[in-house]
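[Automated response] Your request has been received and processed.

Submitted sequence:
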Amino acid sequence: MNLKKIADSNRDKDWAFLMVKYAMPEFIKQIQGELSDEDLYVDESDPINGYGLEKESHVTLFPCLDNKTAINELILYLPKVETLPVKLVNISMFENDDYNVLKADVDPESMLKGLNEELLKHFKCGSEFKEYHPHMTIAYCKKDSDHARSFCKDLEEPIEVAPEVYDFSFVKDKDYKHCYFDV
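Generated structure:
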């Protein structure tokens, strides 16, 4: 992998996102199958996000990295991705101005929280949300969707999900670009 080429290719975007990609758990696929168009928030004027159902399961490890982030330095602080399994413990929702986000919350004792704190010591974070709440997004829902809200609950047993790969993502040319890697 040519990290210099990747770093150079993302200079015209504002922010990058470091995520850990996971296989989509069956219970999330089931919930997504039960949500209807009446539940989902879609913004056709936003060609990058589009919203609706989350297409790839991931947990954001570090949001809004500065576009001048030295990727070679970032990798120095990352463990092998297989050391980052997570336990999903409940389904909840958080509100934004235009929509609500239905999500599966990661056990707060996961290694991701400590890793996020370590990265914050070395890299600038441009996110307006300063407290890290690791989660796996299920769908973007309309604010008045009681049906979507009905999925919110504690899981009977935590569900462990194995990581697949790191995902360094950024917007370029009005599209998301992904760089998948391990260390």
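Summary generated for your ticket: The longest strand covers residues 86-95. The CA atoms of residues 53 and 139 lie 4 Å apart.
If you did not submit this request, please reply to this message.
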